[in-house]
Recover the amino acids of this structure.
């Protein structure tokens, strides 16, 4: 019995000792637990708060080569309100589509710079539309300007290079050969050029042009060893993916070919082979003389008349003058210019639509294109757009 | 224990506060250098093609180039403020350089044929994207619009462009654009037609919701003195009491006057929002 008692005592003591130690650890942990739990809760909440602060609004601009911008805007809306008003960028809005979070198409009414969306219980709206009003063009340079209340992104067209920027971007990455730039809220301006140097397309084009030119003059009997060597270098660089160098060398090859042609022509040669060349040069000199004489005569006569037409220094240019000044115009744009010119330099946009059987948006894009090129100006007359050929100075003409 | 708790909370607090701010304070400096370098390389190429480059252009370009070098140095030193300043300065010089080059009115070397092709490619891409978006919307909203002709036209336009036939490509693009416009009109009509059904559902839900608010307020303010039930502002009646609103909404809904019901919900919501805001006026 005493032995049994002793055994029992030992059995009791050992577990008690062990339990005591464990309780101590548990107690310490229990005291810390609320603090740790509170930390986890705060961290979790902070994630939600950050999401709530940053995620509900998205604004993306996709810029196309023709100067149209696609705008995508996503925002939270009050699900208890039957409608929501969304500000739009630009006055001319095309292809406006509003969807809710489930992709359900929502009805909307456009006002001047806003649209009222019948949300009817939706909590998120996604707005898509195109506008030509965010971009202007001066020479070869395009300018995108926007004043955004939130951070936004811009996807520039392919083959474009930024040559001016009024703000520091937050980020930039290349997506499918296009620059995707994130910008901070506020007013910003980006100047860019399309069809720039250094791309595979432009290099191919330059090489092709140089090749054509060399072929033409070679067939006329001009030897172009230097130009051909340079062109070979251009092709070699192109094959190595050095497009900038390739384009540069191709342009140099063309210049060399031109120099070689001039050198060949300048060598005195009395042989009968060069007779047509001399005839051509003589003809050109005579023609230049005649043109010069006509110009002088016209200038004199215009000096006499100029005092009478001082007020009419600005005139509507004829279509041929416009074509010469803007040779890059598309054929359909040329047709529009011709029609306006035939109608005395001004027509209503509705007349243009009737004449060319174009949808309203297509015609509006064409008109905006011509406006950007400084060929026409748009005037509001009786709620209609009056399209007028822009007047130019007589001497410019 | 208290010290440990304070340290932990301080750490968590720092994490929370630094989260959103950090993303703004750390701009992608490489992007700045990339943009500035691209601009410099491009202008350099442009200038190399000009015979007798005016000194003004050379000076402006050199200043921009120097600023780009300074930007690179700032990035190496991780000096964000200085990098930003040099970037903006470089881009400003490049912008003016580009304007001066434009003003020289040099014959455009990369000529019109290429520009036209690029424009048409861009138009195809734009119309294709709109078409795809409308197609998805049509499927999601069970509008069953046929886009097969649109797909064919886009394919044809791409082929024509690949073959260098820009006028045919242009025609196909215009036709595809017409289809997009028609599809857009059709979907707009679908949306309008379905709006009335959605408006009815919305009104029913709002009646339920306001009914619940009414019950809650009745339980909590049984002893409270009643406020005037309505007020009129220039021909427009605002119902302050949810009970009155529910009654009126039910009546309008039963009479099929959904538009009026929606107006009422809107004005009630607006009024509730104003009421919840702290008023500065007496």
């Amino acid at each position: 019995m005493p032995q049994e008692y002793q055994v029992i005592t030992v059995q009791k003591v050992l577990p008690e000792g062990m339990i005591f130690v464990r309780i101590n650890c548990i107690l310490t942990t229990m005291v810390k637990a609320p603090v740790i739990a509170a930390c986890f809760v705060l961290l979790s909440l902070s994630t939600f708060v950050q999401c709530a602060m940053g995620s509900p609004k998205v604004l993306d601009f996709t810029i196309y080569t023709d100067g149209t911008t696609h705008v995508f805007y996503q925002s939270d809306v009050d699900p208890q309100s039957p409608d929501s008003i969304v500000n739009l960028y630009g006055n001319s809005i095309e292809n406006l589509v509003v969807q809710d979070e489930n992709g359900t198409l929502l009805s909307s009414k456009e006002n001047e710079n806003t649209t009222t969306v019948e949300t009817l219980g939706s909590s998120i709206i996604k707005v898509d539309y195109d506008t030509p009003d965010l971009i202007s063009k001066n020479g070869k340079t395009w300018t995108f300007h926007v004043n955004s209340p939130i951070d936004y992104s811009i996807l520039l067209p392919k083959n474009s290079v930024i040559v001016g920027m009024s703000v520091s971007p937050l980020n930039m990455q290349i997506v499918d050969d296009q620059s995707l730039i994130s910008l901070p809220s506020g007013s910003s301006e980006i100047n860019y050029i399309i069809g720039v140097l250094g791309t595979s397309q432009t290099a191919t084009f330059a090489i092709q042009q140089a090749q054509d030119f060399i072929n033409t003059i070679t067939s006329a009997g001009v030897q172009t060893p230097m130009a051909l060597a340079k062109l070979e270098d251009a092709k070699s660089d192109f094959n190595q993916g050095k497009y900038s160098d390739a384009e540069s060398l191709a342009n140099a090859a063309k210049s060399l070919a031109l120099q070689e042609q001039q050198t060949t022509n300048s060598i005195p040669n009395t042989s009968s082979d060069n007779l047509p060349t001399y005839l051509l040069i003589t003809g050109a000199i005579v023609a230049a003389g005649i043109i010069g004489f006509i110009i002088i005569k016209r200038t004199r006569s215009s000096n006499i008349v100029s005092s009478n037409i001082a007020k009419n220094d600005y005139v509507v240019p004829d279509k041929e003058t416009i074509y010469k000044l803007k040779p890059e115009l598309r054929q359909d744009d040329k047709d529009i210019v011709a029609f306006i010119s035939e109608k005395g330099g001004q027509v209503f946009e509705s007349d243009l639509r009737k004449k060319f059987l174009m949808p309203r948006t297509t015609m509006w894009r064409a008109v905006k294109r011509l406006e950007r090129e400084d060929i026409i100006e748009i005037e509001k007359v009786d709620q209609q757009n009056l399209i007028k050929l822009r007047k130019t100075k007589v001497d410019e003409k | 224990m208290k010290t440990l708790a304070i340290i932990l909370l301080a750490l968590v607090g720092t994490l929370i506060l630094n989260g959103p701010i950090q993303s703004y304070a750390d701009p992608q400096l490489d992007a700045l250098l990339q943009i500035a370098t691209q601009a410099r390389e491009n202008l350099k190429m442009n200038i190399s093609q000009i015979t007798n480059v005016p000194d003004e252009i050379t000076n402006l370009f050199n200043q921009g180039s120097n600023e780009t070098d300074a930007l690179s140095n700032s990035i190496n030193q991780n000096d964000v403020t200085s990098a930003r300043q040099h970037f903006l300065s470089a881009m400003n010089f490049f912008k003016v350089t580009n304007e001066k080059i434009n003003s020289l009115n040099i014959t455009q070397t990369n000529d019109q044929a290429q520009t036209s092709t690029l424009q048409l490619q861009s138009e195809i891409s734009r119309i294709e994207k709109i078409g795809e978006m409308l197609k998805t919307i049509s499927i999601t909203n069970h509008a069953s619009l046929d886009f097969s002709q649109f797909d064919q036209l886009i394919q044809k336009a791409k082929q024509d462009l690949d073959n260098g036939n820009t006028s045919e490509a242009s025609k196909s693009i215009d036709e595809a654009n017409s289809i997009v416009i028609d599809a857009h009109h059709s979907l707009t009509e679908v949306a309008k037609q379905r709006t009335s059904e959605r408006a009815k559902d919305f009104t029913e839900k709002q009646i339920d919701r306001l009914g619940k608010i009414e019950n809650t307020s009745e339980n909590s303010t049984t002893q409270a003195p009643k406020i005037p039930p309505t007020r009129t502002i220039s021909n427009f009646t605002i119902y302050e009491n949810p009970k009155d609103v529910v009654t009126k909404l039910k009546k309008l809904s039963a009479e099929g006057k959904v538009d009026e019901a929606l107006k009422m919900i809107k004005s009630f919501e607006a009024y509730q929002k104003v009421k919840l805001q702290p008023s500065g006026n007496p």
